[in-house]
UniProtKB/TrEMBL annotation:
This is Quinon protein alcohol dehydrogenase-like superfamily. WD repeats lie at residues 150-187, 334-375, 376-417. Residues 442-457 have a biased composition (Acidic residues). SUPFAM superfamilies: Quinoprotein alcohol dehydrogenase-like (SSF50998). The lineage of its organism: Eukaryota, Fungi, Dikarya, Ascomycota, Pezizomycotina. The keyword Cytoplasm applies.
Length: 457
């Protein structure tokens, strides 16, 4: 126990006081151009439903105070505040559709969904962001009220995902997972009740969801509504990760006729069927916090067992995925961390995998080799989310510390960050002693950095 005359420090251990002092000192850093917000931040979502040139500046942030914020990350201005939830919001999803109750004349309608600890899913029509946020945007940002609420879970809603267009006429489904272990499917445009449900999907809470469309299938982004009929699928694979560490696989299919009493104890209606396929994937020892499918159709995971893993799909059975075939997933790579891994995203163009960890770091890994390339330091509490901004080489990260930070994966800037980190790790006092300060980069690395800097100039 530390001795102190400060009453605020009574009954605190020396370790807790030292941790508090360390965080207080670290909070002053400006790495990653921090934007400070008035709440703990639980998740981040890039605006992939807009064309890249319109969306690269915009992110959505789930807040512990019960709101979702749309932020222009370049300026730090709030361009919309989505209100309604009465408890922390741990998960958000964006669908390129309009709600049936709120038809839109926009060529690129979008609906924002948020899962809340109050057991409800909230839906808001998403207005287009202003082209150039003004300095007064933060106080005058519109508060958007929910247009629809979806009630079906009996405990916290912890995970959301939106499917590709399914069936004819095509429709997109919203998938939700909760601390009640249930997996529900909703009509994203109109569903006031689940159109498919598996109440005992997992013995423990569902923390993560991902949709794995067939290889080669691509969403239409902003133009999705107009082209959904041409891209519609009959079925799609869904993956769910739980706090028990297992990852389950599900076949979500849409037909012309509804029914009841789906396979595996599930409920189905409106022709939507959700059934488990194959054995669970036992690649993690405990909670699976995130599941992401990259452009190559590979699965990336983040877990509290201190690893992020890469799983690749091999076809099993006849036919392609979505045509009666089924994929078998095998572990191809494991990225070891010093603490819980909370989120993962992939820069397919650059060949990087980025992870957010409870130890406050944002790490950049070589996607091909699995080697750690760099660790960005700036957050002073647990990193809860990472997202690649579309059409850019920039990753946004959010944290319990209430800050949003951005990190460049552009070659020259990434190498500069590595060089600065190496200099910061160099023992202090060498110059004062008269000893020359030598570079921690090899001659080859210094030459490569110089070339990259010249290219950027």
């Amino acid at each position: 126990m530390a001795g102190s005359s400060d009453a605020d420090k009574y009954f605190q251990t020396t370790a807790s006081l030292e941790a508090s002092e360390r965080k207080s000192a670290k909070a002053k850093n400006t790495h990653g151009n921090p934007v400070k917000l008035p709440s703990k931040l639980l998740a981040v979502l890039a605006d992939n439903a807009l064309p890249p040139h319109d969306a690269s500046n915009t992110i959505f942030i789930a807040e512990a105070r019960g709101a979702v914020r749309r932020l222009a990350i370049d300026t730090g201005e709030t361009t919309a505040l989505f209100t309604g939830p009465t408890a922390p919001v741990p998960c958000i999803a964006l669908a390129p559709i309009a709600l049936a109750t709120h038809p839109s004349s926009s060529r690129a309608p979008r609906t924002l969904f948020a899962g809340c600890w109050d057991k409800v899913i909230y839906a808001w029509p998403c207005p287009p962001p202003p082209p150039t946020p003004s300095p007064s945007a933060r106080p005058s940002a519109p508060a958007v009220k929910p247009a629809l609420t979806l009630a079906g879970h009996t405990d916290f809603v912890k995970a959301l995902a939106v499917t590709p267009p399914l069936g004819a006429p095509p429709r997109r489904l919203l998938l939700s997972g909760g601390a009640d272990g249930a997996l529900l499917a909703w009509d994203a445009g109109s569903g006031a009740r689940p159109c498919a449900a598996v109440r005992g999907a997992h013995a423990r809470g569902v923390l993560a969801l991902a949709v794995a469309p067939p290889a080669g299938w691509a969403d239409g982004g902003a133009s999705a509504g107009a082209g959904d009929a041409a891209r519609a699928l009959d079925e799609v694979e869904v993956l769910s990760g739980s706090s028990g560490g297992e990852i389950k696989r599900w076949k979500l299919s849409v037909s012309g006729a509804g029914g009841a009493g789906g396979a595996g104890g599930g409920e189905e209606a409106d022709g939507v069927r959700l059934e488990e396929c194959g054995e669970p994937l036992g690649v993690h020892a405990t909670s699976v916090h995130a599941l992401r499918v990259d452009a190559d159709g590979e699965l990336w995971t983040a877990s509290a067992d201190r690893t992020a893993k890469n799983l690749v799909a091999e076809q099993e059975g006849e036919g392609g995925a979505g045509a009666g075939g089924r994929r078998a997933w095998r572990e191809a790579m494991a990225l070891a961390h010093p603490d819980f891994v909370r989120d993962v995203c992939v820069d397919d163009a650059g060949g990087w995998v980025v992870t957010g960890c409870r130890d406050e770091a944002v790490r950049v890994w070589d996607k091909g080799t699995g080697s750690l390339h760099h660790a960005f330091a700036g957050h002073y509490e647990e990193v809860t989310g990472v997202a690649l901004l579309p059409g850019t080489r920039t990753v946004a990260s959010v944290s319990i510390d209430g800050t949003v930070r951005r990190w460049s994966l552009a070659p020259a800037e990434l190498e500069r960050a590595r060089a600065e980190a190496a200099m910061a790790r160099e023992p202090k006092g060498k110059e004062a002693d008269g000893a020359p300060t030598s570079s921690l980069l090899t001659e080859e690395e210094e030459k490569e950095l110089a070339e990259l800097m010249d290219e950027q100039d």
